[in-house]
């Protein structure tokens, strides 16, 4: 007998993975959480039926969320991650020696708990002394923060359930206030094959707030379509104008200084979404 997990990414399309075992399943206060072990991608975190991260391909997402803004900012010291309870973005942030404090605000403490247990290579850095882990509402945390952060990263699920308000213009306005005068913000903004309208809406909203707004992409096999977008916005620093001297060596598997600028070269059907 074989057991397979299928994520229905649209009404008519999905991806499927053969399962070795289910480690844990629970309806938390916010979402359905499943931690499963797959044959192809190792341990996999699933929230509300959507793949959040896997041991095999997690490095792509986490490196691209973290390193593009952190190399764009000349001296990032205080960094905030909204969501991201699996800890992968935090792990990548701490590779930058200038970072003095990394705050993680995750609404669902169960994500943190079970990521530490079943995804230790991803969540291991959450115990670092530079990290402040807060189980709290990221939307409200942003609303209470003023001129505090150098970089803010929104590592959310897709816009369903508790993450819906993290895709609203008011949230981006709050982020602008929470950032310092030369601050940078980045968010995952889904895929152009199935959610093109979301990319267009978010980019338009962010562009009305920040003077520099750009879209970049990465290849993530277990995310819908495999082609994933990120929207980065800055008050001052352009990610396409980073001087070579600013890059320093990092241990990465996907991100490189050459890719830093190359990832902004978009397929035409994607660039058309944000013209």
Automatic annotation (TrEMBL):
The active site is at residue 155. Residues 2-235 form the PABS domain. GO terms for cellular component: cytosol. One of its GO terms (molecular function) is spermidine synthase activity. GO terms for biological process: spermidine biosynthetic process. Homodimer or homotetramer. Belongs to the spermidine/spermine synthase family. Catalyzes the irreversible transfer of a propylamine group from the amino donor S-adenosylmethioninamine (decarboxy-AdoMet) to putrescine (1,4-diaminobutane) to yield spermidine. This is Polyamine aminopropyltransferase. It comes from Halalkalibacter okhensis.
């Amino acid at each position: 007998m074989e057991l397979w997990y299928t994520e229905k990414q649209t009404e008519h399309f999905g991806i499927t993975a053969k399962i070795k075992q289910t480690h844990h399943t629970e309806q938390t206060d916010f979402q359905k959480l499943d931690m499963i072990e797959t044959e192809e991608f190792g341990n996999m975190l699933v929230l509300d039926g959507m793949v959040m991260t896997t041991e095999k391909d997690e490095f792509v997402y986490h490196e691209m969320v973290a390193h593009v803004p952190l190399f764009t900012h000349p001296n990032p010291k205080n960094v905030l991650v909204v969501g991201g309870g699996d800890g992968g973005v935090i792990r990548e942030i701490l590779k930058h020696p200038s970072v003095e404090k990394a705050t993680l605000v995750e609404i669902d403490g169960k994500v943190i708990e079970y990521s530490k247990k079943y995804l230790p290579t991803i969540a291991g850095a959450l115990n670092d002394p530079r990290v402040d882990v807060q189980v709290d509402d990221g939307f409200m945390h942003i609303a209470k923060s003023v001129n505090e952060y150098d970089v803010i990263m929104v590592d959310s699920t897709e816009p369903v359930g508790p993450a819906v308000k993290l895709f609203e213009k008011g949230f981006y306005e709050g982020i602008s206030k929470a950032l310092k005068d030369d601050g940078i913000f980045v968010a995952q903004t889904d895929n152009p094959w199935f959610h093109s309208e979301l990319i267009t809406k978010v980019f338009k909203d962010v562009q009305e707030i920040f003077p520099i707004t750009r879209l970049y992409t990465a290849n993530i096999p277990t995310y819908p379509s495999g082609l994933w977008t990120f929207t980065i916005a800055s008050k001052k620093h352009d990610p396409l104008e980073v001087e070579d001297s600013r890059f320093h060596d990092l241990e990465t598997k996907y991100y490189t200084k050459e890719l830093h600028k190359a990832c902004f070269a978009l397929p035409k059907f994607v660039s058309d979404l944000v013209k």
